[in-house]
Specification:
This protein is an alpha/beta fold. It binds iron/sulfur cluster (2 copies). The site of one iron/sulfur cluster has 16 residues, from α2, α5 and α6.
Length: 361
């Protein structure tokens, strides 16, 4: 496998020290040693040394959700997300992607979303139509909200309407490239999708990004890949916090006690933790998860559920158990994908709410 020297160094410098072992949400869900960062590094190292074939570790390479908990906790400063993404890229270049990943990649390229969807739900189509006129402000919804959780996309629009904001939503919104980046890393197809999206965003003064996964891609990964946009890109939660500061979104605390599920894209990648808390505290009494902010534990997503549904259900169930284990009964999400994953768990002990649910009541 053709791997960069930097990645080889990270792979071989893993001390297999176990310090990141207990914090991997996938490893904890499967109970398998092989799911953790240290085991993945060992597998990649064996491929680099010619002891095993790349095909033998590909399922393992796609078990990682790239949440970065191990990067955050790595005592020696190594980056398992970086080398995992590079192996995905190399496997794509060498034609060694598993079939279930190829299908998702093909859908991203052909339809702009990994699910191969082409239609929006009627409610969302109508909500978008009401904001078709061009303004300086774009609400960028993202593929998970548009195609998989359209009720939440409608609510995201309604919250801004409630605050009297004038904004645009695109009927044909381009993909951010975040899904392709997860699937095949810094491939040309990923960069091309990102550049095409950046061109559209350039037509707006400010872009509010609803999904933290897209926000991470646009604000951080685009720069890493040399893709530029002139728009002022702000996360949905940061924009809502600003609306509260400006007294456009009126606080209305119903006294419900909730905890917040920090999306790792906001808390670890963008280092944005207090904006969502400001919004939630305006509408409820906010308590904290034991592992919060930069220490957050990923609660699952929609994309990985396409090929690892049972593992993702267990990841989400474990995060809900974290809620009950501290005596809490309601969790608020800021990631539409985590919201869908948590909602998917059959249980009646924890109420799962989005920030929009909380605001709209
Ligand atoms: S990035 Fe997350 S899922 Fe991947 S190995 Fe690290 S902790 Fe586990
Ligand atoms: S903490 Fe760092 S060095 Fe230790 S096993 Fe995890 S990735 Fe390797």
């Amino acid at each position: 496998m053709n791997m960069s020297e930097k990645c080889k160094q990270h792979v071989d410098s893993c001390r297999f020290c176990w310090m990141c072992h207990h914090i991997c949400p996938i490893g904890n869900a499967t109970g398998h040693e092989r799911s953790t960062a240290r085991a993945r590094a060992l597998g990649i190292s064996l491929v680099n040394r010619g002891a095993i074939e790349l095909d033998e570790i590909m399922d393992n390479i796609y078990e990682c959700c790239t949440c970065g908990a191990c990067v955050h906790d790595c005592t020696t400063g190594w980056d398992p997300v970086m080398f995992t993404k590079e192996v995905r890229l190399q496997a794509a270049l060498e034609g060694k992607l598993p079939d279930y990943i190829n299908k998702l990649v093909d859908n991203c390229i052909e339809y702009g979303n990994a699910y191969g969807k082409t239609e929006l739900c009627d409610d969302l189509t109508a909500a978008i139509k009401a904001h078709a006129d061009k303004t300086d402000l774009l609400l960028y919804l993202g593929v998970d909200a548009r195609y998989m959780v359209c009720k939440q996309a409608v609510k995201a629009i309604k919250v801004l309407e409630k605050a009297g904001v004038s904004f645009t939503v695109l009927q044909n919104e381009p993909a951010s490239g975040a899904q392709l980046d997860f699937l095949i890393g810094a491939a040309n197809e990923t960069k091309e999708q990102m550049a095409a999206n950046a061109k559209i965003l350039d037509g707006y003064k400010t872009v509010i990004v609803y999904d933290p996964n897209d926000a991470k891609a646009i604000r951080r990964t685009y720069k890493e890949y040399g893709v530029e946009t002139s728009a002022n890109v702000i996360t949905y939660t940061a924009y809502l916090a600003k609306l509260i500061d400006d007294d456009k979104l009126k606080a209305q605390n119903g006294g419900k006690t909730v905890v917040f599920q920090d999306p790792y894209q906001l808390s670890r990648d963008l280092e944005e933790t207090e904006e969502a808390r400001k919004v939630i505290s305006a509408f409820a009494e906010l308590h904290e998860m034991l592992l919060n902010r930069g220490e957050t534990v990923w609660a699952g997503n929609i994309l990985m559920a396409e090929y690892l549904p049972d593992v993702i259900a267990e990841v989400s169930a474990r995060r809900l158990f974290n809620v009950t284990s501290i005596g809490e009964s309601a969790i608020v999400t800021a990631s539409v994908s985590e919201y869908a994953a948590l909602k998917n768990v059959k249980q009646d002990k924890v109420e799962v709410l989005s920030i929009e649910d909380l605001i709209l009541g």
